[in-house]
Amino acid sequence: MKGKLLSFTLFGESHGKAVGILIEGLPPGIEVKVEEMKAELERRKGIRRFSTKRRESDEPVIVSGVFNGFTTGTPVTVLVWNRDADSSYYEEIRNTPRPGHADYPAKVKFFGYNDYRGGGHFSGRLTVGVVIAGYFAKKLLERFGIRVRAYIRRIGPVECPQVEPEELFASPNPYCPDEDAFERMLEEMEKARKSGDSVGGTVEVVAINVPAGLGGPWDEDIEADLASALFRIPAVKGVEFGLGFRFAEMRGSEANDPFVVRNGRVATETNNHGGVLGGITTGMPLVARVAFKPTPSIYLPQRTVDLERMDEVELRLRGRFDSCIVPKALPVVEAMVAFVLADHLLRRKAWEGVVR
Amino acid sequence: MKGKLLSFTLFGESHGKAVGILIEGLPPGIEVKVEEMKAELERRKGIRRFSTKRRESDEPVIVSGVFNGFTTGTPVTVLVWNRDADSSYYEEIRNTPRPGHADYPAKVKFFGYNDYRGGGHFSGRLTVGVVIAGYFAKKLLERFGIRVRAYIRRIGPVECPQVEPEELFASPNPYCPDEDAFERMLEEMEKARKSGDSVGGTVEVVAINVPAGLGGPWDEDIEADLASALFRIPAVKGVEFGLGFRFAEMRGSEANDPFVVRNGRVATETNNHGGVLGGITTGMPLVARVAFKPTPSIYLPQRTVDLERMDEVELRLRGRFDSCIVPKALPVVEAMVAFVLADHLLRRKAWEGVVR
Amino acid sequence: MKGKLLSFTLFGESHGKAVGILIEGLPPGIEVKVEEMKAELERRKGIRRFSTKRRESDEPVIVSGVFNGFTTGTPVTVLVWNRDADSSYYEEIRNTPRPGHADYPAKVKFFGYNDYRGGGHFSGRLTVGVVIAGYFAKKLLERFGIRVRAYIRRIGPVECPQVEPEELFASPNPYCPDEDAFERMLEEMEKARKSGDSVGGTVEVVAINVPAGLGGPWDEDIEADLASALFRIPAVKGVEFGLGFRFAEMRGSEANDPFVVRNGRVATETNNHGGVLGGITTGMPLVARVAFKPTPSIYLPQRTVDLERMDEVELRLRGRFDSCIVPKALPVVEAMVAFVLADHLLRRKAWEGVVR
Amino acid sequence: MKGKLLSFTLFGESHGKAVGILIEGLPPGIEVKVEEMKAELERRKGIRRFSTKRRESDEPVIVSGVFNGFTTGTPVTVLVWNRDADSSYYEEIRNTPRPGHADYPAKVKFFGYNDYRGGGHFSGRLTVGVVIAGYFAKKLLERFGIRVRAYIRRIGPVECPQVEPEELFASPNPYCPDEDAFERMLEEMEKARKSGDSVGGTVEVVAINVPAGLGGPWDEDIEADLASALFRIPAVKGVEFGLGFRFAEMRGSEANDPFVVRNGRVATETNNHGGVLGGITTGMPLVARVAFKPTPSIYLPQRTVDLERMDEVELRLRGRFDSCIVPKALPVVEAMVAFVLADHLLRRKAWEGVVR
Predict the structure, then answer these.
(1) Which one of C237, C284, C314 makes the best mutation probe of the D interface by having the most chain D beta carbons within 10 Å?
(2) Which of A63, A227, C93, C220 has the greatest number of beta carbons closer than 10 A?
């Protein structure tokens, strides 16, 4: 994720020495508490029952950029050693790309040199770094009262009813503010798990107290930057803001949010627009939804091609798979949104500092 | 749109001297025919009946980067003078931001210095430059047989049934390959127009003959780059690839596309994934859908705030508005997709040139 | 010149329709006076006697990004139409690259598609755009009291003695604060002119009131960014800061500038370091020197190769050449320095806005 | 160093856990031999007698991006753990910035949060990462026969006579191809060392077999990109190409290099231009010179300011300092040049792959 003033680069492979992140542009003076960072990483493990059995402690090692408990302003590098990787299995399926996975296009892209073990650099394990980036970004946003929270909006056929931002931020349930919907989501995931299958879902992410004026037209469009960040998360196949695709079915008179005065400030009566108009934040809550496809690794037999012999074969995967990755995606989605917001906030401060 | 090797910057304002584009990174030797470029620009005007009455000839003036009918390899600048702008009206509504428009957040973003006339730099008129960028990108892609085409997938409640890529590229109808659906779309737009309202829709864009291996994980993700480009188009509120949001309702066993051998090459039996896995093209047709909200400018009365007096007022817009911008968005969507593909193709060629 | 928050792109060819510039990232609210801009452009014409006889009015046409006399915050495009170009001559020398010019490598780089007339995109005429960029950057810097001024430090064997910043900024002579040296420089240029030759020189540029803290180590190094900008000016072959190459001959004990307290602030007693330590400004005047090679276009006969026949031939140039480009380089050097400083100042403001 | 297709970011602090590098854009299939990499790192230690007594084994740990002995095409991270750091001393001088060092401006830049121990992120130790980047870049260049070599051109008053590229590449002396000059350089460094002082110098770097056509005008200028990279090396205060600053004293008729035919190819008779004209390589050897100031850390007493009490004090440094860093700069200079060349080579291949 390369912002103008804030960017990060993920490194590492699922079965290599480590995974990690290098963050550039973090301002100095952000307080860093490893326990807090670990708590965020813990969220990334999702609901144990529906997650891969690979369970590592994910101990973040801060290699650079933090001194005496605060960011220094120079590049921050954090890595997490890999410990519990079992690569033996991947040699078996090296020539039989898994449907729905990057195996085949990656082989083409990297001329066969890529580390194919456990998905290599494509592995969901790389999101460890994303969550760490989010940790720093959230700390920066907190200074301005900006908060970001994601919840599961859908698992397969089960959709959570629309919730108001206040409800969401007040909810004690870390996955979904609607307990009833959450129960049914769990059932859906369980059904998928039991049948050796997987299931998709959507995540809704909300950011509050975002000031108006972040973003801009064309190259500065904050929706475009957010979408760009969110699509980089593995398995994401759709992103929408506000009413998103539902706008396509509407008339302008229904879709437009009237401007009103609330507590002496400009606001909109409804928030169909999801907090962004013309690529710029309006001061209303930012609302986006992200579609995740079902994990492609499933236990059911699938058809694929043996790339050496160029014939079609049946593939039966063994290993430790998530039956649903949506619960573990929550902190990852939040991290991407927080990071983009932090970049745009910094850009805003640059202008505020010179426009008189 | 800033790619790694290919980027463009739009400039101009709706009621300023001109709108235009500067393109960097175009390789030398692309043949440029102004008539072809104009034909593309003509498509951008959409269906006359449902488009703004502002009708300009959109004569592209190539200012730099083209010599003897070919690109030179240095920055290409093309501009189109504005002629038919009527700004008188905009002074009236200067302090009453139009609902659904960028007026209010733009005023915050630009500290009140933005050119508010006709939407200024936010105007749909700026897409003139996008279409010009697309013209060059398509010419480059053509050398490799890559073709990009967009069609209207939905207008309000009317959805075009799924079409196969071959059908689409063979269709004589420039808006929608399904004549029956198109008829009903026209009716829908007419209804909106007559009631002084506007209507939204979706565009589906397909690219064929895209080689496998473009894109990459994380920072090189081609879906992210495409989404980033598409969200920069005004009024876009959602982007999805392949089955997109429908993936969220599915099981992995339904969603995964089996790999097969077709004509001695690796392909997938179905194309749920829309041509990209793990951020990398698979060689299958690239398929994306883009949601457009209804044009916010409507003739029906709306509520807004007078920013000077900070009280709520009724707003009745006069002017020349599109009742539906979806038809004119087609070449814009194609242009964005073509441009991103061209950037990734160039990056691919860099690696092909050094990996031995 | 691509900075993080401020960048510009030059476009146009010497004998094409126009030359111009697109500037991105300029904050809104910078007052623009065309007469001031023209005065800067006038400086770029140098001393009439030693400059090309091509004399155009260089009327800047502001195409975008300025509204009601102030920058809007969106991309600023300014162009200057070409009027007095005589291309007939260039067909003659198309296959015989001029020694010291980009003709030959440009032909290779652009696969023969480049506009070779008058140097095309390589022409010194493109510095029109640089000067315009400098105009905006200087206006921004002025708000913070930062001023940039360049003077001729050397023409051939004649060197101006070191001057103090105060002297320089107070000098009425626009080329060199030392009248005696300037007289001898003029003689040197005249001698070169009369013999159908050209002569090189150096420019020293000084910026005062630059706050401490701009720049940073490695990727943020402001000397590197300044050098990068300065080397983009045609004919520049060397850049140095402070004592520059003289440091190589020195001992640390001579070279180090002692820190002292001046008016209650930290300063250095001497300014050998030229205002930058470790890539960061110290608050002392920024001092850089730039070496310009003699204009390669001379009237004396030269040897070159006929690229078609691949044999060696004599080349006698006709045309209108500068006998010395150093005088006209002054506003160009200032512009590059001002632009880089403005970019770093913006970045600084971003951090100042969030570090608490 | 951020190129268009190839970039690296250094991380770490002198007395932190580690120093290292993350490289993005390296193509897959580059063979990696740790012993070769260590040999390059060994060169970075310079001549033992004149280098800091901190002697670490500099064992590179390849964390990511290399699989089965070849680059994978995903980000390469290499780190070297810090072992022999003694930080106790730095608390003493925390408030008394060392003359010639970044201590003072760094404190301003980072609002006091920077790791000041051993220079922190400004430490020469960070060049470990640069050398590693150079290792990869050189391997890529080797495929095309491109070789880069640097030598000491000057130490204080002692200058090595000009050498031809063939001589340089054939020389067995790793520091200077002229044995006599090298002897005198050693004496000069010894004199500085004995007097508790340090001495500056210049490095000349030469690249051979660079194809014509790399680089371009303005934003693509390869001299600008090289200078930008070279100025990022600590202590560099000047960069010049070909005759560099000597051009300023010359006439065009002396300076211009006649084009000639050599072995059926276009060449120049002389190489005053140093292999680049108009920002583009000409096919002649690339020649640049880099000025290094004397190491600011010396044992002689110096004057500085106590930043807390704001009064002037005498500073006597203790610690382990280089009396001359020029010998250890050689692989660092080579690395920067190789890296920039590799980036431009990749860009060239992109165009070669599409221009027909």
Answers:
(1) C237
(2) A227
Look up tokens 């007698």; give the residue. Answer: D49
Across the interface, whether the CB atoms of C109 and B77 are under 8 A apart is answered no
Burial of B160 (0-12, 13-18, 19+ CB in 10 A): buried
Task: From C134, C131, C11, C310, select the one nearest D265 (Cα to Cα).
Answer: C310
pLDDT value, residue D356: 80
Residue A351 CB-half CA count within 13 A: 25
Contacts of A221 (CB under 8 A, 6+ apart): A215, A279, B231, B232
Q: Is B111 within 8 Å of C28 when comparing Cβ atoms?
A: yes
Q: How far is it, in rounded angstroms, from Cα D174 to Cα D156? A: 19
**Which residues in chain D are contacts of C197 at CB distance < 8 A?**
251-253
Whether C261 has its CB under 8 Å from any CB of chain D: the answer is yes
Q: Chains meeting D at 3+ CB pairs closer than 8 A?
A: A, B, C
Q: Is residue C156 part of a domain?
A: yes
Q: How many domains does chain B divide into?
A: 1
- What are the tens digits of pLDDT across the range B266-318? 999 999 999 999 999 999 999 999 999 999 999 999 999 999 999 999 999 98
pTM tops 0.95, yes or no: yes
Kindly state whether residue B1 falls inside one of the protein's structural domains: no
Chains that touch B (3 or more CB pairs under 8 A): A, C, D
Q: What is the 3-state secondary structure (H, E, C) of A247-281?
A: HHHCEHHHHCCCEEEECCEEEECCCCCCCEECCEE
Residue-wise pLDDT for B161-183, tens only, equals: 999 999 999 999 999 999 999 99
Q: What is the pLDDT of residues C117-131, one digit of tens each?
A: 988 999 999 999 999
Q: How many CB atoms lie within 10 A of CB A55?
A: 12
Query: Using CA atoms, how far apart are residues B133 and B128, in angstroms rounded to an integer?
Result: 9
Q: Do D250 and C294 touch (CB under 8 A)?
A: yes
Tell me the longest C-alpha to C-alpha distance in chain A.
Answer: 71
**Taking residues A19-34, what's their average pLDDT?**
98
Residue found under tokens 């920058």: C71
Predicted pLDDT at C53: 60
Q: Which amino acid is at D62?
A: I
Contact flag B260-A232 (C-beta cutoff 8 Å): no
By residue range, what is the domain housing residue C219? Answer: 7-354
Q: How far apart, in whole angstroms, are the C-alpha atoms of residue D323 and residue B253?
A: 68
CA distance A223 to A220: 9
Residue B217 with chain A: CB contacts under 8 Å: 102, 106, 121-122, 126, 234
DSSP of D190-238 = HHHHHTT--B-EEEEEEEESPPTT-B-SGGG-HHHHHHHHHHTSTTEEE
Residues 6+ positions from C160 with CB-CB distance below 8 Å:
C151, C152, C153, C154, C176, C177, C178, C181, C182, C185
**Domain annotation covers residue C208:** yes
In a domain, A262, yes or no: yes
**C140 at the A interface (CB within 8 A)?**
yes
Residue B28 contacts C where some CB pair is shorter than 8 Å: yes
The CATH number that applies at residue C51 is: 3.60.150.10
A and D: number of Cβ contacts within 8 A: 134
ipTM given for this complex: 0.97
Cα–Cα distances (Å) from B86 to B53, B83, B115, C18, C57, in that order, read 11, 9, 14, 28, 32
Q: Do C305 and D242 touch (CB under 8 A)?
A: no
First vs last C-alpha separation in chain A: 32
